[in-house]
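Structure in, sequence out. Go:
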């Protein structure tokens, strides 16, 4: 299937490792010029080298702490300078934030800044040009919402899902799509500490119909499809990639 992504531009947050890294590689392999953002310079530079070695479009890399108050403005400026108009925004930066039942305000606040406020602010940076050009795709990597323990990342991402639904309603008339990608458990540094040794296989054989955690490429493949015109009728919804882990049927 030709995804017709050649010549497009994309901004990917959380691109230094895990899913964002795989998403950057897959988009670049399809001919998309990516602004890849993270904090770890070494990982970002190795990502750029890997993409080029694989024959993809060389990404522009940016080391930027997403928690900084001016992060959205700085990323938007780097995108304009390095890419020109942005066709695809992948809001992926984040991490699991397990908290006690009585969580500290500072931890809750930090999670909402990282997973909701900055994501919204960054998206808003790109919307005026997307509206003017009457095209654009925003893809938010969200989270599982069936936890039985407290996780401030998942709660903040629930806010993203609701906001994305509203945004999709507003932006459809401009040809802009807004889609959430809900991962199950994907093998990354983010979650490895929680499933050490036998724990991963024990959990997976009990809770995941397909029997194991997903790979970052499983997410990257779906994001790349969603970013393409092949997904032109998908907006205002959440696409789940979890090996069947979610219990809810709807
Ligand atoms: N893996 C899973 O099973 C799973 C499940 C549900 C949801 N998710 C969500 O999926 C997304 C990707 O997670 P992942 O598993 O791929 O995690 P990961 O491998 O730990 O990668 C996280 C990425 O986010 C970036 N990041 C985190 N905090 C940042 C900050 N303050 N400023 C700038 N960049 C920051 C990291 O950059 P640096 O390392 O360079 O700092 C890294 O590139 C996250 O939003 C996560 O919540 C993952």
């Amino acid at each position: 299937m030709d995804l017709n992504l050649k010549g497009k531009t994309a901004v990917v947050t959380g691109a230094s490792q895990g899913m964002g890294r795989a998403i950057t590689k897959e988009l670049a392999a399809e001919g998309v010029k990516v602004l890849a953002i993270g904090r770890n310079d070494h990982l970002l530079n190795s990502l750029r080298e890997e993409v080029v070695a694989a024959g993809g479009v060389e990404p522009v890399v940016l080391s930027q702490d997403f928690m900084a108050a001016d992060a959205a403005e700085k990323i938007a400026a780097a995108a304009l300078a390095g890419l020109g108009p942005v066709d695809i925004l992948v809001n992926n930066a984040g991490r699991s934030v397990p908290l006690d039942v009585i969580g500290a305000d500072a931890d809750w606040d930090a999670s909402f800044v990282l997973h909701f406020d900055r994501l919204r602010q960054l998206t808003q940076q790109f919307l005026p040009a997307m509206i003017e050009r009457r095209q654009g795709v925003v893809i938010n990597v969200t989270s599982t919402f069936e936890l039985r323990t407290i996780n401030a990342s998942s709660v903040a991402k629930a806010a993203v899902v609701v906001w994305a639904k509203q945004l999709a309603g507003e932006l459809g008339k401009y040809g802009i799509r807004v889609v959430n990608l809900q991962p199950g458990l994907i093998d990354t540094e983010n979650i490895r500490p929680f499933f050490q040794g036998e724990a991963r296989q024990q959990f997976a054989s009990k809770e995941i119909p397909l029997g194991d955690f997903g790979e970052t490429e499983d997410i990257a493949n779906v994001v790349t499809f969603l970013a393409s015109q092949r997904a032109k009728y998908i907006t205002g919804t959440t696409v789940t990639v979890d090996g069947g882990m979610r219990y809810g049927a709807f």
